[in-house]
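Training component of the fellowship. As part of building independent skills, the fellow (R.M.) carried out the full modelling exercise for a liganded target. The chosen ligand was flavin-adenine dinucleotide. The inputs are recorded below so that the supervisory panel can assess the work.
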Amino acid sequence: MSDLENFRIEVRAWLQENCPEEMRDGDITAENQCWGGRQWEFQSEAQKIWFERALAKGYTVPTWPKEYGGAGLSADQAKILDEERQAINARKPLSNFGISMLGPALLAFGTHEQKAQHLTAIARGEIRWCQGYSEPGAGSDLASLKTKCEDKGDHWLINGQKVWTSNADISDWIFCLVRTDFDAPKHKGITFILIDMASEGISVKPIVLISGHSPFCETFFDNVKVPKSYGENNASVVGEVNRGWDVAKNLLVHERGMLGTMSPLRGTSGPESLGKHAAEKIGLDATGRLDDPALRQSIAQAELDDWAYNLTVERLTDEANAGSGLGAKSSMLKYAASELTKRGTELLMEIEGTTGATIGEDGIEYGSLANNWLYHRAYSILGGTTEVQFNIISKRVLGLPSE
Amino acid sequence: MPLILNEEQEMLQDAANGFLAEKAPVAAFRKVRDNKPADGFCRELWSEMAEMGWAGIIVGEEHGGSGFGYVGAGVLAEQMGRNLTASPFFSTSVLGATAIQQYGTEKQKAENLAAISSGETLYALAVDEGPRHNPGRIAFSAIPSGNGFTLSGTKTFVADGHVADKLIIAARTSGEQDDPHGITLFLVDADAPEITREHTPMVDSRNAANLSVDGLEVTGDDILGELDGGFGALEGILSAGRAVLSAEMSGSAQQVFDVTTDYLKEREQFGQKIGSFQGLQHRAAQLATEIEMMKSAVLKSLKDLDQDFANAGMTCSLAKAKTGQVAQLATKEAIQMHGGIGVTDEYDVGLYFKRVHVAQQMFGDAGFHSDRWAKKSGY
Ligand SMILES: Cc1cc2nc3c(=O)[nH]c(=O)nc-3n(C[C@H](O)[C@H](O)[C@H](O)COP(=O)(O)OP(=O)(O)OC[C@H]3O[C@@H](n4cnc5c(N)ncnc54)[C@H](O)[C@@H]3O)c2cc1C
Ligand SMILES: Cc1cc2nc3c(=O)[nH]c(=O)nc-3n(C[C@H](O)[C@H](O)[C@H](O)COP(=O)(O)OP(=O)(O)OC[C@H]3O[C@@H](n4cnc5c(N)ncnc54)[C@H](O)[C@@H]3O)c2cc1C
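Fellow's submitted model of the complex:
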């Protein structure tokens, strides 16, 4: 038996033994996932047990090196772990921006000391991170960002504003892009810096979304002093000063990779099969077809697209593991996944009919279908809009000249 | 008949535009949404609309109406769609007025049309019994008793159901659940003790209610139209409703498109206006073309209702199918082309997205109407 086959048997047994029954309820949603952080309170005993057992095994961040709290799994092993986890419908024990975005960037650009501090805290669920990239004038054109960062000898002084900072109000630290050189070409004066949200001068203001809730904020920096370093070889800046764009781009590829691998048609907390769900709600006609021909056609098309999408994720991941990485093709996955996710919630609204459009007396209920449907409009905007992904595909994958 | 507005109708449009911009802009709708008054709309505003002749827009002058017909109603609805104006206009002045003017007896007309025109009495049409529009499927029962009927059953998502003074209820007097024959319309007082009304808040912040009726005694005088032959009347009322709803959605789509093209000319990224990116230009151009198609379908359906009411069903389906698609596309594109700001509650485009979603489902979405079209065309 090959090592990988042995590994699969081992993992299967470990999951069976350690994953509590209550945690085998399918994919995580924003409401039920384990985020971690200073303010974190477990939602159930089972969630806590699952987290602790996974942590002890290094499975909160399976591919990270053991010295930083991971299990040091290879890409092939990690894929097996994921497959086996999904086979029993188990939730991820911990998921947040630290794991999916900052971690991979630190692994690529951080010093040992930076990794030891930050990766370990992420793996243990101690620190929750938010992403300070976008600004009012710098969205798709991220590199035009203006938040000012001045060198004051032993510290940096930061002034400016970020916007659309997801979960800034409940996060502990922020990874931020700031401008350290206003004279250099726009990509050459950006620095990637790690800041404690408890620092004096940082304030946040939640922004309400069309879904009636407020998962994102405006974040203001008013004379915020950030130490040059958090210890020996442990600078607050990741990578080199003025070279933050390299770090930022690396992180965006991971962000897109993450956004591009969530089972899209089901969105979050959707039914197993839209078609079967529709059949239960609407019924079949005398020939055994869904009693709404137009809707039947749309659902079938979406399910086929979803299937092809999932196969593409599998194929591209296998290709990437075998060779040179996903690269700009992550933009294809991000685009396809966000459009499919939106379609999934739209179809659910159509299946539910008027019931789907009802809300509570006090507004749109968190976690309701209408809430999900409205929230997911943002999927083709956040993490780089669909148009920006198209531009990247045209330029980087197809090699087309610019406009 | 040219497919354009005449001078009078254009004047009505200008007047509506001016009045709503001043008295009932989107900000007024936000206030209603956030303060949640029990009525779900502003009574003073409705009185002013009635004074201007809007409540009786399709009602003939002999009954105190302003006799503008369906094109007039559509002109108003379009402006209301632009401003997201919430009022009993649709339920009372379109559905209620159509039901009585087209199918009522002289006595019923005399008793109801003036009250509609003055804005005093509010109406609602109770058809659907589930979450999907299906006017042929009526189980709500009207059982003969004495020299009248006893009504029992439930109705769902009745627009303005909780504020209406009078209800028009589609009930089954004979036949099976899916039988078009055997449906009868009844006009009843909404505050009868046998009627329970439960307000159902909707994502577009408009009014709807679920009704449950338990043994309401009515007489033959309360029948609107023919006994057992109510399906034809129902189709007529629904056609009028579909056309005017389409006009409303058309207004919403145009408004949200205008806001979006303004934004494309204003927002800069990469050192240039985002409207200079061809990826957005082409979609805007395509949408502008679709909007023209939608406007033609809407105007045609309204004109057909005015000229040959009984045969307007097909163009009303065309209008509803086309606007359902185009208005959804327009609101989705509006959000997408605005980027992050488009998904914030503070910005208006999301309100249009929500209203259009509910309106396109009401009385049949694009799928329903393309299917209806195909069936009526014999395939
Ligand atoms: C729910 C949500 C959560 C978010 N979370 C975070 C977060 O945690 N941290 C963070 O930093 N940011 C976050 N964002 C911000 C997100 O990354 C930006 O909204 C996004 O990059 C778009 O920027 P913008 O909103 O300024 O839109 P703009 O860049 O102003 O875009 C407006 C429109 O123009 C189009 N456009 C722009 N340039 C081009 C071009 N060259 N060619 C064609 N079309 C173009 C866009 O695609 C869009 O349709 C979040 C956004 C949302 C909606
Ligand atoms: C059936 C037929 C009949 C015709 N009849 C006549 C005639 O009677 N008289 C006459 O003078 N010509 C005629 N033409 C020629 C026609 O006008 C050209 O084919 C047309 O203008 C496109 O030019 P092109 O073939 O050089 O393609 P190109 O201009 O090279 O276009 C190639 C592709 O690039 C796209 N493209 C080009 N510019 C842009 C841009 N700025 N933005 C986005 N996309 C762009 C095009 O849409 C196309 O997909 C005819 C062509 C056809 C096919």
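The panel noted the following from the submitted structure. The two ends of chain A are 55 Å apart (CA to CA). Chain A touches chain B at residues 134, 137, 139-141, 144, 163-164, 207-210, 212, 282, 292-295, 298, 349-350, 352-361, 364, 370, 374, 377-378, 380-382, 385-387, 390-391, 403 (CB under 8 Å).
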